[in-house]
Design a protein that fits this description.
Elements: E1 4-12, E2 17-23, E3 28-36, H1 46-56, E4 66-72, E5 75-81, E6 85-86, H2 87-97, H3 103-122, E7 125-126, E8 135-137, E9 143-145, E10 152-153, H4 173-176, H5 185-200, H6 210-221, H7 258-267, H8 278-281
Antiparallel strand pairs: 1-2, 2-3, 3-5, 4-5, 6-8, 7-10, 8-9
Enzyme class: transferase
GO molecular function, one term: cyclin binding
Function: Probably involved in the control of the cell cycle.
């Protein structure tokens, strides 16, 4: 690690600590994710190996860049581009001031997030942990999708995947209902939840358990009565029946316009087969203002 000078700790997660540092070869500020390999026989955590492998071939302006991997002294150091802040910090700041984000800013953030997602999905990569903390924002307002520890490559036909992914508040109903074959629509649901949170300045589905979360989704969007979702292993015919979609009522006194609400409603569809794709979302009229 002679090429990097550590400055300060900026975060800590399950598998390591993140430091702000200086790359001594070019004096650029970088972020170093340090994973300590405590037991040699256990090797490198699978999430870290996956993150390295995926980021090596995902190169996009809206995805955080992995510069280098340095392995020494029982430590694995991942050197990333340094990004100043994240979306959660920005949302918390706005909530404290009780002022909505300007609509054009929400539009710019969403467009960049969807660009990153469309790029990943086109390369058959699911992120599987999209939440405000994993959406980094630099000082110029540029979005960087980060933390690919739970990301997976997928193929057609879909193979069985774990259901234990995506932070609860941003997790789609099919995962809560036991689906073990899923695709890009799981990320679209998460992005839709973030879209709503950018407008409301509070999470759309704050919950303390999986069943609480599922019922809050049904209360807002309606309990499904037929279709593929009702065939999933955890679906019960005894679930409470909410029959009306109340999504629009959540945004009556907010800056979200009709086109934004239409795009959001296409993301937050209980049946994953009917959710809009990231590439189609980028073509939605909601973003026309950015293309002029």
């Amino acid at each position: 690690m002679d090429v990097v000078k550590q400055l300060q700790k900026i975060g800590e997660g399950t598998y390591g600590v993140v430091f702000k540092a200086i790359d001594l070869t070019n004096n650029n500020v970088v972020a170093v994710k340090r994973i300590r390999l405590e037991k040699e026989d256990e090797g490198v955590p699978s999430t870290t190996l996956r993150e390295i492998a995926l980021l090596k071939h995902i190169c996009h302006p809206c995805v955080v860049r992995l510069f280098e991997v340095i392995h020494e002294n029982n430590q694995l150091n991942l050197v990333f581009e340094f990004v100043d802040s994240d979306l959660k910090v920005f949302i918390d700041q706005q909530r404290k001031t009780k002022t909505y984000f300007p609509p054009i800013l929400v539009k710019k953030y969403m467009f960049q997030m969807l660009q990153a997602l469309a790029f990943c999905h086109a390369r058959r990569v699911l992120h599987r942990d999209i939440k405000p903390q994993n959406i980094l924002i630099d000082s110029q307002g540029n979005i960087k999708l980060a933390d690919f520890g739970l990301a997976r490559e997928f193929n057609i036909p879909l193979r069985t995947l774990t259901k234990e992914v995506i932070t609860l508040w941003y997790r789609c109903p099919e995962l809560l209902l036991g689906a073990n074959k899923y695709s890009t629509s799981v990320d679209i649901w998460s992005i839709g939840c973030i879209f709503a949170e950018l407008v409301l300045l509070q999470p759309l589905f704050p919950s303390d358990s999986e069943i609480d979360h599922l019922f809050k989704v049904f209360q807002l969007l309606g309990t499904p009565s037929d279709g593929a979702v009702t065939q999933l292993p955890n679906f019960r015919t005894t679930f409470p029946k909410w029959n009306v979609n109340l999504l629009a009522s959540k945004f009556i006194n907010t800056p979200l316009d009709s086109q934004g609400l239409d795009l959001l409603s296409r993301m937050l569809v209980i049946n994953p087969a009917n959710r809009i794709s990231a590439s189609d979302a980028l073509k939605h009229p909601y973003f026309d203002e950015l293309k002029q």
